[in-house]
Specification:
- With about 290 residues, the protein is an alpha/beta fold.
- It is built from 11 helices and 10 strands.
- This is UspA domain-containing protein.
- Belongs to the universal stress protein A family.
C-alpha cells in the first residue's frame, strides 16, 4: 500500500471504524480498508467495533423452538464478528497500525449507542455508505453524527484505500458547513488542491462571490484553495457531484443536515441525496 496524500496527514491521532455483522454475506467492507490506510498514513491509533447484530428472543414457553433458532443465529453472527475482528488484527499488524478491537453481540439500538459513545473519544469515525435511508446502517451513521459531535467519513463501496489529494469543500455559509470544513483541516492542509464550491442561484452569483468569503480563512491555515461558485444544475447535490467530478476530487467535505432530518426524509435534501449516490467518500459534520 502506498501513501496516498500529497503531504502526510497530521492532527489525526485516533480513528474509529464501526462494522455491523448482519449475516447477509454481502456487507460492504470499504470502511475497513479506508480506515486502516487512513490510520497508517496519519500514524493514528485505530479502534474497530465489530458488532454482531443480535436478534431478540421472546422468552415465551410456546415460542421455545423459535427462540432456539434465533439463539443459534445469534451464536453464528457472534462467531462471524469475532472472525472479522481477527482478520482486522492481522491486517493492522501487517500495516504497522496499532489497533484496538471490540467484538460484541448487541441489539441495534445498543450498537448505535455504543458506537456514538466511542466516537466521542476519537477524532473521526469511518463507516460504510448506505444508499437507502430506511436501512439500519443509515440509522447508525446518523446516530453517530448527531450523538457524538464528531465528524464521520462515509465510504462508498469499492473505495477501500484512503486518499485525499484533491478535496471539495461544500460551502453555503451555514454553521454545519463551517464545522465540517474546520474539522477537516488536517486533510485540507495535506491535499494538493482544495476547491471551495458554493452552489447558489444565478442572481446571487451575479452580485456576489459567495465562496470567496471563506477562502481566506482556509488560506491562513496553509490550505492551497481555489473558489468555484456554481449555479444550480438540477439540484444542489447533483451540482456538487458534477463539480467534484470535474475537479477530480477524492473527498467532499460538507455540513450534514442543514435542514431537519424529518424535512430531508420527506422533501429530500443535499445530505440525503449525496448519501444515496456519491461515488467518493463524504466527510460529514453537524
Amino acid at each position: 500500500m502506498s501513501v496516498s496524500t500529497a503531504s502526510p496527514v497530521t492532527g489525526i491521532c485516533d480513528v474509529l471504524i464501526g462494522l455491523t455483522e448482519e449475516g447477509r454475506g454481502d456487507e460492504a467492507a470499504a470502511s475497513l480498508g479506508y480506515g486502516l490506510t487512513l490510520a497508517r498514513d496519519a500514524g493514528a491509533h485505530l479502534t474497530v467495533q465489530s458488532a454482531a447484530l443480535r436478534l431478540m428472543t421472546t422468552g415465551l414457553p410456546l415460542c421455545r423452538f423459535a427462540d432456539e433458532i434465533i439463539g443459534a443465529e445469534n451464536g453464528r453472527l457472534a462467531v462471524l464478528a469475532r472472525k472479522a475482528a481477527e482478520r482486522i488484527r492481522e491486517d493492522a499488524e501487517g500495516a504497522g497500525v496499532v489497533c484496538t478491537l471490540e467484538s460484541a453481540s448487541l441489539m441495534h439500538h445498543e450498537v448505535v449507542a455504543r458506537l456514538s459513545t466511542r466516537a466521542r473519544l476519537h477524532d473521526l469515525t469511518v463507516l460504510d455508505a448506505e444508499p437507502f435511508a430506511a436501512m439500519p446502517d443509515r440509522d447508525l451513521m446518523e446516530g453517530v453524527l448527531f450523538g457524538s459531535a464528531r465528524p464521520v467519513i462515509v465510504v462508498p463501496a469499492g473505495w477501500d484505500t484512503f486518499r485525499a489529494r484533491r478535496v471539495v469543500v461544500a460551502w453555503d455559509g451555514s454553521a454545519q458547513a463551517a464545522r465540517a470544513a474546520n474539522d477537516a483541516l488536517p486533510f485540507l492542509r495535506a491535499a494538493e488542491a482544495v476547491a471551495v464550491v458554493c452552489v447558489a442561484e444565478t442572481e446571487r452569483l451575479l452580485s456576489t462571490v459567495p465562496g470567496a468569503e471563506f477562502a481566506p480563512h482556509l488560506a491562513r491555515h496553509g490550505v492551497e484553495v481555489t473558489v468555484d461558485d456554481r449555479p444550480v444544475e438540477v439540484d444542489v447535490a447533483e451540482t456538487l457531484r458534477r463539480a467534484a467530478g470535474r475537479f477530480g476530487a477524492d473527498m467532499i467535505v460538507m455540513g450534514a443536515y442543514r435542514h431537519s432530518r424529518m424535512r430531508e426524509w420527506f422533501l429530500g435534501g443535499a445530505t440525503q441525496s449525496l448519501l444515496a449516490r456519491s461515488a467518493i467518500p463524504l466527510f460529514l459534520a453537524h
